Amino acid sequence: MSYKAAIVYLEELVAPREGTPAAALAAVLRRPNRRVVLTNGCFDILHAGHVSYLEQARELGEFLVVGLNDDQSVQRLKGPGRPINPVHDRAAVLAALRSVDAVVIFSDTTADELIRVVRPSIYVKGADYQEDTLPEAKTARAVGAKLHFVPLLPGRSTTNVISRLGGSGTI
User: Fold this and answer.
1) Rounded distance, CA 143 to CA 159, Å?
2) CA distances from 76 to 2, 60, 72, 161, 168 (A)
3) Are 124 and 60 contacting, i.e. CB atoms less than 8 angstroms apart?
4) Is residue 35 in a domain?
5) 169 lies in a domain?
6) Measuring CA to CA, how many Å separate 100 from each of 2, 63, 75, 121?
7) 103 near 10, Cβ under 8 Å?
8) Which residues contact 166 (CB under 8 A, 6 or more apart)?
9) Mean pLDDT by 10-residue block, N- to C-terminus, for the chain (171 residues)?
10) Given this model, what pLDDT does residue 161 score?
11) Per the structure, how many domains does the chain have?
């Protein structure tokens, strides 16, 4: 199976058409007793911190869904010059990782709607968040998801990579 089959848009997942990757993902998400893990982010320039984070998230369950902010939401969150890589490139790299089972592209600046649609068993974010600072905490709890915060690798961030490249993030 091509990694492309693991990439869908949130809108496709809300109302999946039969025979599409979104329909296949929706069927997986509906399976009873399936421990689905959800995380999300911009994943603009993939680095070792992202890989470690995603591997730790995957170990918490049977199926890892990564919500990926589209280009417009990344720009709203990170500012002008971002993202560095367009959404389809970021999605392809994520979907090709062994730890990632599916990538869902979404356009909001928070993952609330994504959480409502996926209904994960566990919602994972980096330890730079806490329950009281996590915008999606209330939504995650409302769908019955446990919150889990993964330790980050020190010094590993897209902002640090861009800084080391000597730039503002523009190419």
Assistant:
1) 32
2) 31, 30, 6, 20, 16
3) yes
4) yes
5) no
6) 13, 8, 24, 16
7) no
8) none
9) 75 94 93 94 87 95 96 91 91 95 95 97 90 94 96 64 56 44
10) 54
11) 1
Provide the whole-model pTM. 0.87
**157 contact partners, CB below 8 Å, separation of at least 6:** 47, 49
Domain membership flag for residue 139: yes
Distance CA 56, CA 67 (A): 16
Range of the domain at 63: 3-164
- Tell the burial category of 32 from Cβ atoms under 10 Å away from its Cβ (0-12, 13-18, 19+): exposed
CA pair distance 4, 91, nearest whole angstrom: 9
pLDDT of residue 5: 62
**H or E segment at 78?**
helix 71-78
Please say whether the beta carbons of 71 and 83 come within 8 A: yes
**Domain assignment present for 125:** yes
Q: In this predicted structure, what is the pLDDT of residue 163?
A: 61
- Angle (nearest 5°) at CA 155 between 134 and 166: 110
